[in-house]
Fold each of these.
Amino acid sequence: MLRSTAGAFFLYSIVYTIFFRPIDQFHNFSVTVASLLIIFGCFYYFFEIMFYDYYLEKQLWKIPDFWVATLLLLFFSSSFLFFAFFPKVIAMDAKLWGTLNFMLKLIGGTMYLSFGLVYYLPLLREGNQDDFPNDLATSKS
């Protein structure tokens, strides 16, 4: 499903660039659609966690994939709102626009920092192998 969605979005972006908006203009509608697709992907991941019991024997807060999906949902929800109303946002007062832009960058920076930490912190803990993601648990010496 992910490959077909990515392929469809790629085709959409090519068609949108060629026929509707030139490449030298900002494509806020494409960013809005991409944000919406990522939000739906996060909800699909949470749906699978709840109904298919993938992590039934594990504590969910120790699963790095859960935190990545949560942070993606947080960032792209705010990104979706920012870029969906982008023409209105840039028409605002420059100070307010700058504040909104800074908040979006702060959320994005926190997200990317957390991406590194959720996979790195289990390596710092001396615990059992259940705390590590599968690919890291087998490569630990």
Note: The mean pLDDT is 79.
Amino acid sequence: MRAPSLFAAFLPLFHFATALPNITGTLLPWEITSLGTFSPSSYPASHPFSRIIFSISDPNNITVAPRHQFGQIGFPPTATNCSVYWNPYSEDPRKADWPLNACSEVSTAKWTFQIREGNINIGKTGTAVTRNFVAAVKLSEHVVLPTGGIWEHKYEGQASFAVGVNMAGACGGSGVCSYGLSERPVLVNQTLVSATCLIGDCDI
């Protein structure tokens, strides 16, 4: 079966358990439509938790087989909300051993993410994770084919955020700081990292 042009460049990188389904569609970038960060006050009786929250969507509608009586065979657009909370006095979500963060549940896909060290130089005040960071996002999608096989796609993408670049906000006298997007949406150019037949016959 002839591989579709969208994924042809990736074929040498993957092991396929069986033939690639007849995938059609143009891959559009993900969109981060909202994002907010918060760092706490150091005043007595305050609760020292920082957080990063964002919403991300995948606008793609990827078809992998002709429409079935049970519905579309493919990966429809999806969106989720992601968040991570930590105590900045004892924890750092950028560390390599920080567990993978789960996003809100959606019925057609699984979103996860990690926070990584910021890669934009905004001076000494930009070292705080809530002011300068990279959001590394993963998307895993599965669908049952008419043959009974289960086809999986895995994507990865990341976006950089920094105050004064694509974030803005303010700090109060108590030390509380809040930042959000100064421009939106932020586009995330994702990459297909795996296309696999997990089980059964995926030759359609």
Note: Residues 68 and 146 are 8 Å apart (CA to CA).
Amino acid sequence: MKRLFPALLLLLGALSASRADNPPTLVPGTYGVHATGPATALPTLTLRPDFTFRYANPSGAARPQELAGTWALAGDQLVLTSPNAAKPMKWRLDPSGPCLTTRQGLCFTRLCQLSQ
């Protein structure tokens, strides 16, 4: 047991160092939900190389969202700014792959890259 604790600390240190050395990267393209059925009610986010975006979330029938504007990357955070939104929408880059995550209240959304 006494040898296990230092080994675990060493392993955790190595994992955290490798994550810092390889920060997640963002590739412009279309992000959405990988689904096998109809995708008409699923959110999509299109990031263009000219730093403009289009976000559509038709899933809320009472309040479907459609925004367009500019995007910026600050570390592992993607910030979407639209003149039609009261405040910027913030997404985090997923370190495990080409995906974005956000939370609005109790609604958690994860979009993965569908195309470039």
Note: The two ends are 49 Å apart (CA to CA).
